Amino acid sequence: MMSLTVAFEQMVQKQRDFFVANQPFSLAYRQQQLDLLKQVILNNEAVLTQALADDLGKPKFESYVAEIGFVLHEISTTIKQLKHWLKPRKVKTPLLSQPATSYIHSTPLGVCLIISPFNYPVSLTLSPLIAAIAAGNCCVLKTSELTPNVSRVLKQIIDSIFKPEYVTCINGDVEHVTCLLAQKFDHIFFTGSTEVGKLVMQQAAKNLTPVTLELGGKSPCIVCADANLDIAVKRIVYGKMLNAGQTCVAPDYVLVDDAIKSDFLAKIAKRIQILYGDDARLSEDFGRIINSKHTQRISKLIDTDKAIVGGQYDIEHCYIAPTVLENVELTDPIMQQEVFGPVLPVLSFSEHQDILNIIHSLPSHPLTAYIFSEDNKTQEQLTSAIQAGGMAINHCIQHLVNPHLPFGGVGLSGIGSYHGKHGFDCFSHKKSVLKAATWFDLPVIYPPYKHKLFWLKKILK
Ligand code: NAD
User: Does the beta carbon of 372 lie inside 6 Å of ligand 1?
Assistant: First the structure.
């Protein structure tokens, strides 16, 4: 049997040949491919929903809002906006280069590799693909081995509409990624853990391949004394419990003002009870952890003495109850890693400097930080003082679903960003083009230079 590396080498070469032979893919072609993707998703909506339920126990609503519907909407807006995005952008031209006009053209990068994680396996595979197609690239997709059902359906979908030399989907594990990373791609777009992100970047560096890394980390959620507490609690529980806490931008931990801590804890306990009842196992609206290994990992982060809500787990059935921990210390195991499950540690602060000290004492800049406060000055101060990939004030997750905002991390939570036009830009090269006129030739730039320096100094000052 042909080794994986050789097979991938041939596959990438075929994509490169196809890319070069068809440059540039026209606007109509790109829109057509995106429309094909839209139709095949619509035709497979039920199959995808079932696969998401099988792999992650995802409630139908969550599967639509954060996966299928999210992707359909992204395709529709991309198809509508693409003509506008593709237009070269005219910029000014300096005097010394006149007469001329200058433009920035968005051109494709070539053959791109997209590696996706398990938690939103549809949207985190297809959303970058939409951007890559829009920007005119060929693509290899590598789905997560932890979601075998979704990965199988995605492969069927991709194979049914695209030629493999245009877009192909690989279902595989670490060995597959390793062999893929040995190939020369023009861009690698990776979504996953910081740990694996570092490996991807190391491999990419060997070929000087640019990377976009969409990673994780501990995203703080700050609740100030003047917050609208009922709204804060509603939105924090929503952000934390979506997909059973397996969301890269879930509030990882809460920092609440000492003055309102007991009120906050009482309200959060009540809210969880209202949403998920006495036993969240019976709720149709609460998902499961991806596998027993991760369930075990999360269960070990629960200090039952500190649990004021939940604390129960069932490793065999990949269940962790919605859990809130109080009096958490920075040295507790739960503060040493990204939780990525429905367990919410609550720490407190007495002054704003404590917030910054806590956040900046952790190894990574967070992917997201949330602030709940009614005071504009507090919002502004914290927004400028906290280093985070993105932020939301008085809400959770919503900054991610706004396609007009670039979504990405900073420091250990990622490199680069995407969504909407930002995704198109992420998969495009910004090519500078200066078009000079020939009806006049500015003599000042050519030798002999004698007597010209005087004029040059007048212009370049
Ligand atoms: P992961 O890093 O374990 O896996 C992601 C991908 O990398 C998978 O396709 C997997 O096959 C591959 N992979 C795993 N180990 C590898 C290795 N040793 N060498 C090469 N490839 C390897 O991530 P995950 O567990 O699937 O997802 C959870 C993580 O992803 C969390 O940290 C979460 O915060 C992060 N995440 C980030 C975003 C974002 O947009 N920033 C979105 C979703 C998830």
Answer: no
